[in-house]
């Protein structure tokens, strides 16, 4: 069972307090949704990167502060590189987290 | 005292006898014995039969690595523990133990005919032989394999013991209580931080007990150990846990410990926990698990009496037991000499040390000479004699070709040592090949962990103590007088004049894998060690190859002609040793298996003999049978009573979420498919919730309590996921809204009253609410008081009758229920359960999300297009509803079915076809989702998802069921009172 | 009307090592505010709302826990019912906020004694040593199958709030640990 640093509680808490909530930084189209083809819509709706390596994803501190937040976790080592609040972009590459994925351009916070 | 007991030796108490039976025969051991040491003291080495060939076997090791001596300890019904290692089982007075995998008895075993035909049981035998015909699998092959290959028989009775589990935390966790672990604990103790030291054996000490022939800081090892145990015992911050195995090492220094509490006690208190699983989160983990000795792979190396040199030494020094009177030694490593010398010093005759090496260290030669031990250098054992116990061996000199035989009753072997990397590897710590040691050793850590002592490749007491101290941050150097642990060589194959095919040189004793099996696997194309493992089953037995993996790797590496480090190592997986299932479950058994939620009104229902059904974690009353009634009779009575007069139903389990804030209506508009802005305060609306894919996700009635406050209800089972769904969108998509969600499911008890007399019943009890139909219409909500208690009173109906859902604060729920039930007697008020609720709603064609929908049903498919706003610019699921396949013709749609034979109740889940006479496989149009007998209609009714169902109205379809195919007519789903007139009872 | 929490505690399992008791009636509110309003709302309401998640303010008759960002659970004795209702109504009038009464949603237990932390750790994964979980810390967490709110009122005294239908599970779990301790 992992320890996950909750960016709201500002402490590491046991994994069983959390729930995984899928890939992060996926823009939910609203205004232009009607003009999108089914093919385009399917990219938002169904298609995910399923990345090997550093993966930006969402977690929910369900049995804690009840907040959704973002994290970068390496899917090979299963280690968290960083967690950050919803609405924030992944912190820029620094010495300690040199391999963070590039931030996707995103409209929504999700 | 038996002939093999060496009084004055060992950490056992020879003054206390312990009586036990093995395979029905009575034996006597002493306090402190394991089953293996006690049997060996009685001259018994034969303790089991092997897995595939049923060969007679005795212990190879003296600890938890033991592959051969698997036994059953029988403590009565449900308490038969199987596949226990005799080398780890502590005996107690009255213990009943049995060998396993033998029939009719250990000395004469029918299955041993496999051994005679072992030429026909090569690697992959099962895969190759039991392939076809397919029909033979269930009837012939599998029963055969199970019979022949089974390990201990699993008990069939319920385990009556209690088990425990807990979480624990410490700054330093030390696994292994040998010299390295103890030195680490002594050092770590000084910090004042929490230290846990675990050891799988009865007491800590490790090699200081097994091989005590050394001095530490000027003191005999035993004295030093006693002082260390005392120091650790006194340190308040140190917890020493004996009989505790670290079984798995998980993320972020989370280590599972299995502590055995009562297995060694003759008469444990009934109800005392047998084992406890500790889930420890450690700041730092120090692994001091030691090393496991490797057998030599030679012809006849599995005869009882052949064992590891270190095991022979342990039996002598820890248990005071001689493994034989004439004990030969066969080695490729210096360390076996220590064993030989210890045994010789205990007056056990060592006829010969056979060493595969030509050059023997001078000090070892001299010491052997001093003890009169013959050394056969550069020679090997080419075969052994004896079936149930070794009686002698043949020494072969490959250079001269000379052969000679030596009599012995035990043979100690050593092929060197394998550092125990099990937990280190669980933690994904890196490993590297050490060519000198011919073993893998720890490399880069993946967690805050460090290895110390032999498991780090640092052999000898001094290295262990210094390494342990250093691992805990110390810089102490211990002064130790000991024999140099020495070095060894590894040979991938020992020379022999006997043809390969005539040899039986075992690598994996428990799974009967021989050297030639591994070579055969490689010849047949299995190059990866993971494939060789699975094909030969090497290392796949209950010991997970603790003694065999490295030997198999060496043999495979030679066979594929690649260096060992290129061949790789098979994966170590938890648990380190076999672990009782119940220990993994811990407390969570019986009523703690899972949470069973009940409502405040539940005790009332229980007193009336309600029959229950689980809904999510809730236990809900399903029906209230009266004397002699089955479910159908009870439900029919409950339905009739409700439609004709008055039914009372506990709806407290409905999920409730309070949505509050100035943007509450905006949020509702986004999260539900219907419009909410137009809903006035005091109004209710059926809410339909979709997921982003456009499928029905949940539904429920929502009341607007104030401009900025909605009382949302969800399905009983859906409450947790609906809450999550709402929070997710609120926190991550609709972030600019000022609105908050509060779960209020358990704040309210909900009493549903349905039936024409519902209003009459509550009228006298309600304060502050005008109940007249003109003022309080259908789908309205009011606040006021009932029975003097605050209420949110909903006028809603899930039955089609005049209905109220009375919300009162939970802890008043039962009292209000009882008051209304009492007052309802003149109306023959009838309590009903979920089954009747289902029938009543089905008669009205109301859906149950998850029963009539399955996650692929759109509002249109369910006939709920009216609940989808055409005007709203956005709501969850809106865009997906326009996807081409969601608007396509021919989708499965929810329709009613009326069986032509009105005595037939369709099976829920039954398939539906257009033509029952079509060729197989038939085209299935859909399935029955709900089916009940309806008293109100005097006939059975059903709902079904049917392809293009809306266009099949009035057509006849067919439902094949066991025994008969039934014709059904397709209808709409509003079977009863389609105009809803019954809601308007005055 | 009869106030009935409908749960019994087997006193025979209580001893000096660990004592489980059920608290009586409490008034509870879940309060949410916008970040910008917290300071002013604290001042005008007089509520001692702890600022940090995990913080509590424990006073005679009233405990306030900060469970999430701008989320507080207020637990008070019944005598403050009217006053608290008034405070909540005023807050709701003056600020953009959410005040929801959840008095009957929860049951409250206290777990006391030198074995309290160990008993809770049978199912709660948090480090409950005084260093890691000091007096005055409170949080929402998990107790095996039951979500709980847990706070420490003294070295050997914890309060646990749990949704009422989970209460028997919590009680039975702690009883099992007590029974194991008595048997071992």
- How does the major sheet of chain B shape up? 7 strands, mixed
Overall tally of structural domains of chain B: 5
Instruction: Supply the CATH architecture of the largest domain in chain B.
Output: 2-Layer Sandwich
**Secondary structure: number of strands of chain B:** 51
Cα gyration radius of chain B (Å): 38 Å
CATH architecture of chain C: 2-Layer Sandwich
CATH superfamily of chain C: Probable tRNA modification gtpase trme, domain 1
CATH class of chain C: Alpha Beta
Separate helix tally of chain B: 24
CATH class of the largest domain in chain B: Alpha Beta
Q: Share of helix among residues of chain B? A: 10-25%
Distance between the termini of chain C: 45 Å
Describe this structure in words.
The complex is a heterotrimer of chains A (110), B (986) and C (184). Chain A has 110 residues and is mainly beta. Chain A has one domain (3-85): Folate-binding superfamily (Folate-binding fold), CATH 3.30.2270.10. Chain A has 1 helix and 6 strands, in the order E-E-E-H-E-E-E. In chain A, the strands form 2 sheets. In chain A, strands 3-4-5-6 form a 4-stranded antiparallel β-sheet, with no helix packed on it. The longest helix of chain A has 8 residues, at 38-45. Chain B folds into 5 domains: 13-120, 2Fe-2S iron-sulphur cluster binding domain, sarcosine oxidase, alpha subunit, N-terminal domain (Ubiquitin-like (UB roll)); 164-292 and 418-473 and 574-593, 3-Layer(bba) Sandwich (FAD/NAD(P)-binding domain), CATH 3.50.50.60; 295-415 and 485-497, FAD/NAD(P)-binding domain, CATH 3.50.50; 505-561, Arc Repressor Mutant, subunit A, CATH 1.10.10; 595-888, Probable tRNA modification gtpase trme, domain 1 (Gyrase A, domain 2), CATH 3.30.1360. In chain B, strands 8, 9, 12, 13, 14, 15 and 28 form a 7-stranded mixed β-sheet that branches. A 7-stranded mixed β-sheet of chain B has the order 41-42-43-44-40-34-45. Chain B is elongated, with a radius of gyration of 38 Å. The mean pLDDT of chain B is 94. Classes of the chains: A mainly beta (110), B alpha+beta (986), C alpha+beta (184). The A-B interface holds A 1-3, 14-15, 19, 21, 28-30, 33-34, 36, 38, 41, 45, 58, 60, 62, 66-68, 77-78, 86-87, 108-110 and B 250-252, 254, 279, 281, 428, 446, 692-693, 724, 727-728, 731-733, 735, 873-874, 878-880, 882-884.
């Amino acid at each position: 069972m992992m320890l996950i640093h909750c960016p709201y509680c500002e402490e590491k808490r046991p994994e069983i307090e959390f729930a995984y909530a899928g890939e992060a930084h996926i823009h939910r189209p609203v205004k232009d949704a009607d003009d999108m083809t089914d093919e385009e819509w399917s990219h938002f709706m169904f298609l995910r990167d399923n990345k090997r390596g550093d993966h930006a994803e969402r977690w929910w501190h369900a049995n804690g502060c009840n907040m959704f937040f973002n994290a970068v976790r390496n899917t090979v080592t299963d280690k968290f590189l960083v967690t950050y609040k919803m609405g924030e972009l992944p912190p820029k590459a620094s010495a300690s987290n040199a391999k963070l994925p590039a931030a996707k351009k995103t409209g929504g916070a999700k | 005292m038996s002939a093999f007991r060496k009084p004055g030796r060992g950490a056992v108490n020879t003054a206390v006898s312990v009586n036990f039976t093995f395979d029905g025969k009575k034996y006597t051991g002493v306090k402190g014995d394991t089953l293996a040491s006690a049997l060996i003291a009685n001259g018994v080495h034969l303790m089991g039969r092997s897995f595939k060939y049923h060969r007679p076997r005795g212990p190879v090791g003296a600890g938890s690595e033991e592959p051969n001596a698997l036994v059953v300890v029988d403590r009565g019904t449900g308490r038969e523990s199987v596949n226990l290692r005799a080398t780890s089982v502590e005996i107690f007075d009255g213990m009943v133990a049995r060998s396993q995998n033998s029939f009719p008895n250990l000395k004469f075993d029918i299955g041993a005919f496999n051994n005679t035909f072992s030429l026909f049981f090569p690697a992959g035998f099962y895969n190759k032989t039991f392939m076809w015909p397919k029909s033979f699998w269930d009837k012939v092959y599998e029963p055969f394999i199970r019979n022949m290959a089974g390990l201990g028989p699993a008990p069939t009775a319920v385990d009556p013991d209690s088990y425990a589990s807990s979480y624990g935390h410490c700054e330093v966790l030390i696994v292994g209580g040998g010299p390295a672990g103890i030195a680490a604990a002594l050092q770590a103790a000084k910090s004042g931080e929490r230290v846990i030291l675990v050891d799988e054996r009865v007491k800590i000490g490790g090699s200081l007990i097994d091989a005590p022939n050394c001095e530490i800081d000027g003191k005999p090892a035993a004295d030093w150990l006693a002082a260390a145990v005392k120091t650790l015992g006194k340190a308040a911050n140190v917890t020493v846990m004996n009989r505790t195995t670290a079984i798995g090492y998980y993320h972020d220094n989370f280590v599972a410990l299995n502590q055995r509490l009562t297995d060694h006690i003759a008469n444990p208190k009934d109800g005392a926990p047998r084992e406890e699983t500790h889930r420890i989160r450690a700041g730092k983990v120090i692994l001091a698990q030691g090393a496991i000795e490797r057998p030599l792979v030679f012809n006849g190396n599995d005869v009882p009496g052949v064992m590891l040199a270190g095991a022979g030494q342990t039996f002598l020094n820890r248990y005071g037991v001689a493994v034989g009177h004439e004990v030969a030694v066969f080695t490729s490593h210096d360390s076996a000499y220590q064993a030989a010398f210890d045994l010789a010093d205990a007056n056990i005759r060592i006829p010969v040390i056979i060493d595969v090496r030509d050059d023997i260290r001078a000090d070892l030669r001299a010491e052997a000479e001093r003890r009169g031990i013959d050394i056969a250098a550069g020679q090997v054992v080419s075969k052994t004699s004896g079936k149930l116990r070794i009686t002698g061996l043949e020494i072969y000199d490959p250079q001269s070709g000379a052969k000679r035989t030596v009599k012995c009753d035990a043979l100690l072997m050593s092929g060197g040592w394998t550092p125990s990397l099990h937990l280190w590897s669980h933690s994904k710590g890196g490993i590297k090949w050490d060519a000198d040691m011919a073993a893998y050793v720890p490399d880069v850590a993946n967690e805050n962990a460090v290895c110390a002592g032999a498991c780090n490749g640092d052999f000898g007491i001094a290295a262990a103590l210094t390494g342990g101290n250093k691992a805990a941050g110390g810089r102490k150097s211990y002064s130790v007088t000991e024999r140099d642990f020495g070095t060894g060589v590894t040979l991938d194959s020992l020379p022999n004049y006997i043809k390969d095919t005539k040899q039986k040189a075992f690598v994996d004793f428990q799974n009967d894998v021989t050297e030639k099996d591994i070579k055969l696997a490689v010849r047949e194309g299995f190059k990866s060690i993971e494939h060789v493992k699975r094909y030969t089953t090497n290392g796949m037995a209950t010991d997970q190859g603790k003694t065999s993996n490295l030997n198999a790797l060496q043999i495979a590496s030679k066979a594929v002609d690649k260096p060992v480090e290129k061949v790789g190592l098979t994966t170590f997986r938890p648990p380190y040793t076999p672990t009782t299932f119940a220990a993994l479950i811990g407390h969570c058994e019986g009523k703690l298996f899972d949470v069973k939620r009940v409502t405040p009104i539940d005790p009332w229902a229980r007193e009336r003999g309600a029959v229950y059904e689980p809904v999510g974690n809730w236990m809900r009353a399903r029906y209230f049978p009266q004397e002699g009634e089955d479910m159908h009779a009870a439900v029919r009575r409950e339905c009739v009573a409700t439609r004709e007069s008055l039914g009372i139903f506990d709806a407290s389990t409905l999920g409730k979420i309070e949505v509050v804030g100035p943007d509450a209506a905006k949020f509702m508009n986004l999260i539900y498919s219907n419009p909410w802005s137009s809903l006035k305060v005091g109004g209710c609306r059926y809410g339909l919730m979709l997921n982003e894919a456009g499928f029905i996700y949940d539904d429920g009635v929502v009341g607007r309590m104030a401009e900025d406050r909605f009382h949302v209800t969800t399905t009983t089972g859906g409450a947790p996921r609906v809450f999550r769904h709402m929070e997710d969108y609120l926190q991550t998509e609709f972030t600019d809204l000022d609105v908050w969600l509060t779960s209020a499911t358990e704040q309210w008890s909900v009493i549903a009253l349905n039936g024409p007399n519902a209003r009459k019943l509550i009228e006298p009890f309600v304060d502050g609410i005008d109940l007249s139909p003109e003022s309080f219409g259908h789908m309205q909500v009011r606040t006021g008081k009932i029975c003097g208690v605050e209420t949110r009173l909903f006028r809603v109906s899930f039955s089609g009758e005049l209905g109220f859902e009375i919300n009162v604060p939970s802890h008043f729920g039962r009292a209000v229920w009882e008051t209304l039930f009492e007052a309802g007697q003149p109306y023959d008020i009838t309590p009903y359960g979920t089954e009747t609720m289902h029938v009543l709603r089905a008669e009205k064609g109301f859906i149950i999300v998850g029963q009539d929908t399955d996650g692929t049903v759109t509002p249109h498919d369910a006939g709920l297009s009216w609940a989808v706003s055409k005007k709203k610019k956005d709501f969850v699921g809106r865009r997906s509803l326009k996807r081409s396949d969601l608007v396509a013709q021919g989708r499965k749609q929810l329709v009613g079915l009326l069986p032509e034979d009105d005595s037939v109740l369709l099976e829920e889940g039954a398939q539906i076809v257009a033509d029952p006479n079509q060729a197989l496989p038939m085209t299935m149009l859909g399935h029955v989702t709900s089916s009940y007998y309806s008293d109100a209609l005097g006939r059975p009714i059903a709902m079904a998802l049917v392809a293009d169902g809306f266009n099949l109205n009035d057509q006849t379809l067919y439902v094949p069921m066991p025994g008969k195919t039934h014709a059904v007519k397709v209808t709409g789903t509003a079977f009863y009172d389609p105009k809803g007139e019954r809601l308007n009872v005055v | 009307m009869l106030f009935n929490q409908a749960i019994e505690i087997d006193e025979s399992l209580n001893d000096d090592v660990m004592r489980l008791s059920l608290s009586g009636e409490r008034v509870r509110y879940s309060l949410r505010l916008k970040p910008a309003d917290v300071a002013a709302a604290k001042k005008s309401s007089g509520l001692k709302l702890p600022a940090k998640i995990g913080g509590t303010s424990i006073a005679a008759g009233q405990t306030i826990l900060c469970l999430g960002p701008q989320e507080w659970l207020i637990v008070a004795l019944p005598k403050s019912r009217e006053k608290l209702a008034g405070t909540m109504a005023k807050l709701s009038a003056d600020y953009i906020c959410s005040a929801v009464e959840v008095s009957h949603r929860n049951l409250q237990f206290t777990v006391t004694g030198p074995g309290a932390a160990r008993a809770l750790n049978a199912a709660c994964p948090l480090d409950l040593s005084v260093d890691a979980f000091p007096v005055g810390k409170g949080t929402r967490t998990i107790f095996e199958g039951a979500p709980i709110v847990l706070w420490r009122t003294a070295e050997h005294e914890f309060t646990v709030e749990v949704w009422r239908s989970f209460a028997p599970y919590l009680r039975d779990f702690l009883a099992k640990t007590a029974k194991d301790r008595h048997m071992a």
